[in-house]
Automatic annotation (TrEMBL), chain A:
Organism: Sanguibacter inulinus
UniProt-listed SUPFAM superfamilies: Nucleotide-diphospho-sugar transferases
Transmembrane segment boundaries: 20-43, 362-388, 394-416
Full protein name: Glycosyltransferase family 2 protein
UniProt xrefs under InterPro entries: Nucleotide-diphossugar_trans
TrEMBL record, chain B:
Classification via InterPro entries: ARM-like, ARM-type_fold, PBS_lyase_HEAT
Gene Ontology molecular function, alphabetical: oxidoreductase activity
Transmembrane portions of the chain: 6-30
Biological classification of the source: Bacteria, Bacillati, Actinomycetota, Actinomycetes, Micrococcales
Transmembrane helix among keywords: yes
Pfam families, per database record: HEAT_2 (PF13646)
Keyword annotations from UniProtKB, A to Z: Membrane, Transmembrane, Transmembrane helix
Protein name: HEAT repeat domain-containing protein
Length: 478, 329
């Protein structure tokens, strides 16, 4: 059998797509760079304001808006008490904790009842958002000074539990937190500040999520920030730094933020009720919610803002095994595709301003399609080398340019982090970040691209979406 | 279309490698410089901290000698001592605070801050406003009022907060004016500053309730409620609950929980009308639920079957029927 047709096809492919692929690589990394520049403007302003932010004054003021912290819990018996205590202990003048026990089969509820002296309240929890999981009981502390409500309900998933929490919440602002997240003591003050500064327009804020792996946690607080030991987790620290921290700060600066992480997002409750809460069927429910709010506000021609707060506020354990990471990335990409497809009419629609004309096209081209191109490259380049249609030194130089540009973007992110927050104070951690940003190009990027593509493919085949289990090693809290 | 040559690729690669190296060197330089600054700060702190702590824990006749020791610190150590003293002002009251204010005046802190209100640097002007507020000396009032019109938003915000720390009720109208459109001073800062004075200028608050700007009306209502300015109560009910802004109506309904009497029940009941915005209805129902008056109870009984689950829940919780009353809680 002759390989000439394959060789010819590959040659044509390289001739036609080569310059375009390089252009794509250039554009995607340049867009990261632009976001980092925008983020550094955002950080500069944030840090300048932080000096005079008056956090202590806000912490004492009766005018600071009340916050309901929603903690959905499914089989979280090991961490739930620490979580509730750490949220109750947050510095804030008026906040309540709403735990939604999502049909846990372990001792989550029993531990809460025993520790906080809960009694049945018989409270009516029917709300404006329809929920699926039937409520078994509502519990409140016998000691009324503890601002805690525990809703015990049948298992119906995280989004449905959060919808229940929104119904039950009694404060103007609602913050959604994962039961295993570790919050900084001023997390609520920092993330609610935009609402206090601009009460009429701000509808949602997102805080910075950082990887807690490797950090020392004492009494539900991160007291010593360190790099994780696992290489997989280390690379995610770099990703969080580059994409989640700087990327979102950049989008916020451009007034086009379309994603607030489900692990720490604050919303005006009336807006959540008007939007109908989270979509319990969506696998990218946090993204979907923010998009729905954007659509609702733009359609009704109301002035509004969705703001990202640059201050680190929440720490979460990232996957440190490839199996768990793979499940997470498949789910994220599937969610991305479903939301982008669901809101496709907003894309390139001038009616939706920067959201429609900049943010959504960016997510289509540089988030959704990126893994497809990466995987195509991973298949085609080795094939070309095998068939001798690729000039080896040229291919190596091409690859190096692409990866060194990616490394350059990470270095820029690292410098911004060093100037602004400087959370990884040890020299050894700085070295680990640099090494991880080199290592991510060798295998990690390609693997995550493959997982993301699998997630997309699963959605196109209408395969049933599953959340899977996030195996957590825990923070070793003392 | 783009054509790629070997030299273009290599050239790009070299430029990128140089840029990466420059960024990494910059990162290391920033870190080294921070470490050096921290070390110097720690050394100075070790010399200054015990003296300042001595003042803060001093009693009666120990205060004066302890303050003298702080005031006598050499110029090289004074900036560190000044930072400590100012940071402690939030939690220090009475004789110790007065003595420390004198130390700051003696060492020229207030004078420098007053001069810095004219500085070209916005950060310096904001810092100056903060210092004047912390010291709380009336001589800084004029400078702070001027800074309320500063071109920089940070400076305006800090000046508003600082005026609250000076605590002069005559500043009510000036602070409310600082919420004028385009000023962007957060209403929560102005409101908290007005609360800081402990008492307020009722006429200025009444004028605020009738202001054209929504944010001013909102702040005036919130401050009236927190400071229990009963003279404004009727205006809050009459104007606030019929305000064109939903946010203001919600604030008015909430304020009446503190300001309202039985006379406010009809206005609040009207605010629970099904044609009203849901958030206003919820706020009015909650306030009615906090009122012990029979007309409020009677109206809440009507709301027990309301279509809005939040209104229904609040009404039911406030007027438990025989079947649900008592129980566990």
């Amino acid at each position: 059998m002759t390989l000439d047709p394959v060789r010819d096809a590959l040659l044509t492919f390289f001739d036609v797509s080569g310059p375009w692929l390089l252009l794509y690589f250039f554009l995607i990394n340049t867009s990261y760079l632009v976001l980092i520049i925008l983020a550094s403007v955002n950080f500069g302003r944030h840090l300048r304001r932080t000096q005079f932010s008056g956090t202590t004054s806000a912490a004492r003021s009766p005018l600071t808006p009340g916050v309901s912290v929603l903690l959905p819990a499914y089989n979280e018996a090991n961490v739930i008490l620490d979580s509730v205590r750490s949220v109750l202990d947050l510095r804030y003048p008026d906040h309540e904790v709403v735990v939604i026990n999502d049909g846990s089969t372990d001792a989550t509820l029993e531990r809460l009842v025993e520790t906080f002296g809960l009694v049945r309240s018989g409270r009516d929890v029917a709300g404006r958002i329809e929920v699926r999981g039937a409520v078994r009981d509502v519990w409140v502390p016998a000691d009324e000074s503890i601002p805690l409500v525990v809703v015990d309900k049948e298992n119906s998933g995280r989004s449905d539990s959060l919808n229940m929490g929104i119904n039950v919440a009694s404060r103007d602002l609602v913050v959604m937190v994962d039961a295993d997240s570790v919050l900084d003591p001023d997390a609520l003050l920092v993330v609610s500040k935009p609402f206090a500064d601009d009460p009429q327009n701000v509808v949602a804020t997102g805080g910075v999520i950082r990887a807690a792996n490797g950090c020392r946690v004492v009494g539900g607080r991160v007291v010593d920030v360190r790099m994780p030991r696992s290489v997989v987790a280390r690379i995610q620290v770099v990703e969080y730094l580059r994409s989640f921290l700087l990327g979102r700060a950049g989008w916020s600066q451009a007034d086009a933020l379309i994603l607030i992480s489900g692990a720490f997002g604050m919303f005006r409750r009336d807006i959540l009720l008007e939007a109908g809460g989270l979509d319990a069927d969506s696998i990218g429910e946090d993204f979907e919610l923010v998009m729905r709010i954007h659509k609702m506000m733009k359609d009704s021609k109301r002035d509004y803002r969705v703001v990202f707060v640059a201050e680190p506020v929440s720490w979460t354990e990232v996957p440190d095994t490839l199996a768990v990471l793979g499940r997470q990335r498949r789910r994220w990409h599937r969610g991305l595709w479903e939301v982008l497809w669901g809101y496709r009419r907003m894309t390139f629609n001038p009616r939706y301003g920067r959201i429609g004309m900049v943010a959504l096209p960016y997510y289509w081209f540089f988030e959704l399609f990126a893994p497809l191109l990466e995987v195509v490259g991973v298949i085609v380049v080795p094939l070309g080398l095998l068939l001798g249609v690729v000039n080896v030194p040229f291919a190596v130089a091409f690859l190096l340019v692409a990866y060194v540009y990616a490394f350059f973007v990470t270095c820029a992110a690292l410098l911004v982090e060093e100037i602004s927050f400087h959370r990884y104070a040890r020299w050894r951690d700085l070295g680990a970040i640099v090494l991880a940003s080199v290592a991510e190009n060798i295998g990690y990027r390609q693997l995550t691209a493959l997982w993301r593509l699998q997630g997309w493919w699963a959605s196109l085949r209408k395969k049933k979406a599953v959340w899977g289990t996030m195996t957590r090693a825990g923070f070793g809290s003392s | 279309m783009v054509t790629l040559s070997w030299s273009v690729l290599i050239g790009t690669l070299v430029v990128l490698v140089v840029c990466c190296t420059a960024l990494l060197v910059a990162t290391v330089a920033v870190r080294l410089s921070r470490a050096r600054r921290a070390r110097r700060h720690d050394e100075r702190t070790a010399q200054v901290k015990p003296l300042v702590l001595e003042v803060l824990t001093a009693e009666d006749e120990e205060v004066a000698p302890a303050c003298e020791a702080v005031a006598a610190l050499p110029d090289t150590l004074w900036p560190t001592a000044e930072t400590f003293v100012l940071a402690a002002f939030d939690s220090v009251r009475g004789e110790v605070r007065d003595a420390l204010v004198q130390v700051l005046i003696q060492r020229g802190t207030l004078e420098r801050a007053l001069a810095a209100t004219q500085s070209r640097s916005a950060v310096r002007r904001a810092r100056a406003a903060e210092v004047i507020g912390l010291v709380g000396h009336v001589s800084g009032r004029r400078g702070l009022v001027r800074l309320l019109s500063d071109p920089n938003i940070e400076v305006r915000t800090v000046a508003a907060r600082a005026l609250g720390q000076i605590g002069d009720p005559h500043l009510t109208s000036i602070l409310l004016d600082s919420l004028r459109p385009g000023s962007d001073v957060p209403p929560s800062v102005v409101g908290t500053a007005l609360l800081g004075s402990g008492e307020t200028d009722t006429a200025a608050l009444e004028a605020g309730l009738a202001a054209d700007d929504e944010v001013v009306r909102l702040t005036a209502i919130a401050v009236s409620a927190e400071l229990l300015v009963l003279a404004t109560a009727r205006a809050v009910a009459d104007r606030g609950l019929t305000d064109p802004s939903v946010t203001v109506r919600v604030q008015a309904a909430r304020a009446l929980a503190r300001l309202g009497g039985a006379w406010a029940v009809p206005a609040l009941a009207a605010a629970t009308d099904p044609t009203e915005a849901s958030v206003v209805r919820v706020a009015a129902t909650r306030t009615l639920g906090e009122m012990p008056f029979p007309p409020a109870r009677a109206h809440l009984a009507l709301l027990r079957d309301d279509e809005d689950p939040d209104v229904r829940r609040l009404a039911t919780a406030a007027t438990p029927s025989r079947e649900t009353a008592g129980g566990d809680r």
